[in-house]
Structure formats: structure tokens, C-alpha cells
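wait is this the right file?? whatever heres the structure
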């Protein structure tokens, strides 16, 4: 694995020249300060910097807020055992699920803090080796975290089929996107490397949006008072602490022959008893995951469709690098529609103009 090839640009590739915009015509100190700030980081368009602040800020904030979860079984209130949704620790405290949650948290949280640096242009232009090394670390961390996610999917917020399917799809598309991004950069197809890395990171950001949707859905469903889920008596005992409370609220757990695996119906009511809060979150988790995944998958394709100039610029950079390396066909040596599909053969604009 040659680290010199894992990047979105080469050292000889300079950032695009800023174009004249209306901001330059407005003698506004606030606008000038804003432009000076994002150009210092290498951004050439204000909207790109705005998107970066929103999405990178959300990922970093979420990762920082969950760093205390690395203390998996600690006694502090901020540990995963005490901070997770009620009932989750019942399953994650032992066996393969304990291993899975440890692997997942120990890798995805650092990945969330590292990934934002990949999208700061000045790092790619002036600190290329740091960009490459960070890229390799990200690939390794995300792939390992995906393994951990698969290990805990069966018990994540109840582990319904919709939840397991959503986790599986998220693992597949993020892993495939990273693999395609890696293949394209090895072939110096920088435009496609950018596209697939953006897709991978947007997919992984689903977890942040999903949390918002899940909580909102739990609040709404609680107002309707006619939603329920099932929980095992063992889970209920881990939440309510004493068998007297469990048997009083859920008589099925106190019947002769009842075991920790016996199921009890729990009303979904957010903001009430802890087991009812857990029920509301479980009810919403699978739906929230699929909805967030749809929003992120659609959003990144819209963004890629609205930035054709950057794609064309990087396609030309790819063409030059592939010519130097002797890769053929130059400009389409990676995964491109004209190389692998029925797209029109790509040619650099200057050659088309000469013809």
C-alpha cells in the first residue's frame, strides 16, 4: 500500500483561483472578514465553507459528546453503561455484544474527529502527507467500526429486523464507498475519489441525523399513547432494579414459569418511566435510521450534482497525473461512466477546442 497515492490532490496541484463574486463588489467589512476566514483555510466558495461548518461541526460535536462512552463499564454517570438508553447495557455487558460495542465505540469516535480534517483544502495543498496518513487511519478505523456495528446490530435498541437491515445497509454502502474511493485514488482518478469519499462520510454522518429524528419521533408517538413494544423480563429487571417493581408493573414477569427471556408489553412513552422511555426509543430507532440514511444519500448526490465545475477541474487534474504515470486511458483510468459504462468518451476541454 503506497501512502503517496492516497490523497485527493497531488503536491503540484494548486487550489483553484478564486473567481470574482458579488461579495467583492460589496464594501462590507463583515463579508470581507468572512471571505478572509474561509480563504485562509483554502475554501474558494462561501457556501462550501458554510456546509463544512454545519456538517463537520455536527460530527465533531457528536463525537466529542460521546467520548465519555469509551469508559464502557465505568461507574460514572457519563460512562456508556450509565449513559446509554435504558436496557441497552443488559445486552452489552457481556458476551460478543460487549466486544462489539467496545470495538465500535473505540474506532468510530476517533474516526468522527479525524474525518473533518480530510475536507479542509489547505491541508491537502500544504500538508499532503498528513492528509494521506489521516486518510489511511480513517479507512482502517471505519472498517473496524463497521465490524463492531454488525456484532451489536441484533440487540441495538431492540434489534428489530428493520434495525438490523438498516445497520447492514449502512455498513455495506459505507464500506463499498471507501473501497471505491481507494481504488480510484490508486488509479489517480481524483474526481471520483472525491465523490466516493464524500458519499462515505455523508453515509456515516447518518448516525447524527438519526438521533434527532429518533427523539422527535419518540416525542410524537408518546403523545398518541397507543404504541407499545416488548421487552424481556431480564431487561426490565436491569432497568427497575428490583423484582418487586417488575412484577408489580408487569405481572407476566411474575407468573409461574417466567424466565428472564419472558416478554412483557411496555408502553412507548418518552419522558415517563425509564423502561417506557426505552420503549419509545426502540419504536423509533429503525424508522429513524432508514429516514436519515435516505436524507443523507439524497443530499450528497444533490451536492455532487450542483458542483460540476469542481468535478471537471479534478477530472483535468486526473488526466494530467495519469498521463505522467502512463495510465490509460488518461482521464478515465479509474471508475468512470465512459470507462465502465456507455458514457461518451471523455476528452480534456483544450483538445476538444483544438478540434
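ok assuming it is, sequence goes like this
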Amino acid at each position: 500500500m503506497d501512502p503517496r497515492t492516497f490523497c485527493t490532490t497531488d503536491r503540484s496541484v494548486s487550489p483553484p483561483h478564486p473567481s470574482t463574486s458579488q461579495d467583492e463588489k460589496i464594501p462590507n467589512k463583515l463579508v470581507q472578514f468572512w471571505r478572509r476566514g474561509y480563504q485562509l483555510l483554502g475554501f474558494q466558495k462561501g457556501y462550501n465553507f458554510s456546509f463544512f461548518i454545519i456538517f463537520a461541526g455536527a460530527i465533531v460535536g457528536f463525537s466529542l459528546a460521546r467520548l465519555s462512552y469509551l469508559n464502557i463499564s465505568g461507574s460514572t454517570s457519563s460512562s456508556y453503561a450509565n449513559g446509554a438508553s435504558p436496557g441497552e447495557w443488559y445486552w452489552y455487558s457481556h458476551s460478543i455484544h460487549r466486544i462489539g460495542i467496545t470495538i465500535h465505540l473505540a474506532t468510530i469516535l476517533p474516526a468522527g474527529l479525524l474525518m473533518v480534517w480530510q475536507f479542509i483544502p489547505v491541508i491537502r495543498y500544504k500538508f499532503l502527507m498528513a492528509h494521506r496518513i489521516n486518510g489511511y487511519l480513517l479507512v482502517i478505523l471505519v472498517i473496524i467500526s463497521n465490524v463492531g456495528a454488525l456484532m451489536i446490530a441484533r440487540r441495538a435498541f431492540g434489534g428489530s429486523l428493520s434495525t438490523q437491515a438498516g445497520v447492514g445497509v449502512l455498513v455495506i454502502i459505507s464500506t463499498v464507498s471507501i473501497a471505491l474511493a481507494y481504488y480510484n485514488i490508486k488509479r489517480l482518478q481524483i474526481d471520483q475519489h472525491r465523490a466516493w469519499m464524500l458519499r462515505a462520510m455523508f453515509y456515516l454522518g447518518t448516525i447524527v441525523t438519526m438521533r434527532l429524528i429518533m427523539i422527535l419521533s419518540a416525542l410524537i408517538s408518546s403523545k398518541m399513547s397507543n404504541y407499545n413494544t416488548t421487552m424481556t423480563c431480564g431487561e426490565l429487571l436491569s432497568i427497575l432494579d428490583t423484582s418487586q417493581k417488575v412484577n408489580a408493573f408487569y405481572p407476566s414477569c411474575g407468573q409461574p414459569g417466567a424466565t428472564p427471556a419472558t416478554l412483557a408489553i411496555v408502553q412507548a412513552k418518552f419522558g415517563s418511566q425509564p423502561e417506557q422511555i426505552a420503549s419509545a426509543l426502540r419504536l423509533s430507532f429503525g424508522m429513524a435510521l432508514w429516514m436519515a440514511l435516505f436524507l443523507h444519500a439524497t443530499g450528497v448526490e444533490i451536492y455532487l450534482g450542483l458542483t460540476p465545475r469542481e468535478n471537471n477541474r479534478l477530472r483535468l487534474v486526473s488526466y494530467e497525473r495519469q498521463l505522467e504515470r502512463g495510465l490509460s486511458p488518461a482521464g478515465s483510468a479509474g471508475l468512470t461512466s465512459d470507462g465502465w459504462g456507455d458514457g461518451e468518451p471523455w476528452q480534456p476541454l483544450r483538445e476538444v477546442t483544438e478540434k
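The two ends are 40 Å apart (CA to CA). so i think its the right one actually
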